[in-house]
């Protein structure tokens, strides 16, 4: 009888030990799968989703800016059309139910409220931030052209590559100051100092941002910006929340 009791206790201990070992293994697997909050923005799945979000925001921002830029000219265009006898005659032949718009609907409160619903999603104090390798990436708009910047927390100047300058239609004055700039890898190149007329991050527009125009051979350093480029604002990078907050 005693032997049976010992065997039962031994069997029970083995079952308990096996269960503990199994739970420890599961805990280790979960621990290995968990991504620290500050590294979530750098995972492939999240980075892909954030890039898609950034592209969608940029497309919507560009469309809204185009609408706002175009609205003042629409009424003038309609006035010109109304003064064209051929057009008014052709519309008249279509019947009373057809008429040429005055363009006033684009200045109406109802139309502006519709725009405001979309603006709430992109003209914000927070813009998406994601990791590419070890670098934080954030997107801005220059002349309706999306530009991806590497976020630089250090006291470095804003920098634009030759390809970004060309794509965004910026012009670097021929008499721009030339100076030598040393990059983190020790390489030293001649750059030109100039001003970016405006940069849009969400609802914030940075004007006359001092920047360095990089030569073509410095393309690999990419466009860079940091707190120094936000003269009248206080930007804060929050990688764990995948956002750059601008106040």
List key phrases describing it:
5 helices; alpha+beta; 10 strands; 247 residues; four-stranded mixed sheet; 41% helix; six-stranded mixed sheet; flat
General description of the model:
It is built from five helices and ten strands, in the order ααααββββαββββββ. The protein has 247 residues and is an alpha+beta fold. The longest helix is centred in the first third of the chain and has 39 residues, at 44-82. A hairpin with a 2-residue loop joins strand 2 (135-142) and strand 3. It has a six-stranded mixed β-sheet with strand order 8-3-2-1-10-9. Strands 4-7-6-5 form a four-stranded mixed β-sheet. Helices cover 41% and strands 26% of the residues.
Number of strands: 10
Structural class: alpha+beta
Distance N terminus to C terminus? 78 Å
Please outline the major beta sheet. Answer: 6 strands, mixed
Share of helical residues: 40-55%
What's the oligomerization state?
A: single chain
Tell me, rounded to a whole number, the average pLDDT.
87
What would you call the shape?
A: flat
| Element order: H for helix, E for strand | HHHHEEEEHEEEEEE
| Count of individual helical segments | 5
The amount of beta strand, in percent, is 25-35%
Catalogue the unreliable spans: none
Please give the radius of gyration in angstroms: 29 Å
Main β-sheet, spatial strand arrangement: 8-3-2-1-10-9
Quick synopsis:
It is flat and about 105 Å long. The chain contains five helices and ten strands; from the N terminus they run ααααββββαββββββ.
Outline the secondary-structure elements:
Layout: H1 2-33, H2 44-82, H3 85-94, H4 109-122, E1 126-132, E2 135-142, E3 145-151, E4 158-160, H5 162-167, E5 177-182, E6 188-201, E7 204-213, E8 224-225, E9 235-238, E10 243-246
Parallel strand pairs: 3-8, 4-7
Antiparallel strand pairs: 1-2, 1-10, 2-3, 5-6, 6-7, 9-10
């Amino acid at each position: 009888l005693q032997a049976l009791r010992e065997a039962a206790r031994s069997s029970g201990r083995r079952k308990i030990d096996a269960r503990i070992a199994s739970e420890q293994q599961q805990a280790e697997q979960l621990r290995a799968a968990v991504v620290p909050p500050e590294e979530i923005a750098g995972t492939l799945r999240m980075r892909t989703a954030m890039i898609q979000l950034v592209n969608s925001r940029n497309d919507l921002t560009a469309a809204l800016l185009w609408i706002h830029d175009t609205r003042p000219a629409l009424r003038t265009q309609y006035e010109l059309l109304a003064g064209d006898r051929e057009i008014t005659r052709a519309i008249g032949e279509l019947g009373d139910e057809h008429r040429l718009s005055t363009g006033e609907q684009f200045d109406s409160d109802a139309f502006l409220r519709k725009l405001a619903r979309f603006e709430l999603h992109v003209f914000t104090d927070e813009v998406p931030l994601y990791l590419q390798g070890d670098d934080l990436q954030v997107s801005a708009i220059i002349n309706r052209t999306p530009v991806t910047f590497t976020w630089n927390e250090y006291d470095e100047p804003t920098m634009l590559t030759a390809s970004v300058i060309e794509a965004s239609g910026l012009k670097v004055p021929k008499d721009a100051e030339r100076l030598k700039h040393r990059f983190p890898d020790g390489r030293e190149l001649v750059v030109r100092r100039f001003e970016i007329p405006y940069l849009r991050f969400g609802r914030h527009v940075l004007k006359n941002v001092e920047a360095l125009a990089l030569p073509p051979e410095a393309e690999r350093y990419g466009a860079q910006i940091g707190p120094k480029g936000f003269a009248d604002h206080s930007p804060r990078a929050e990688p764990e929340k995948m956002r750059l907050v601008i106040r």
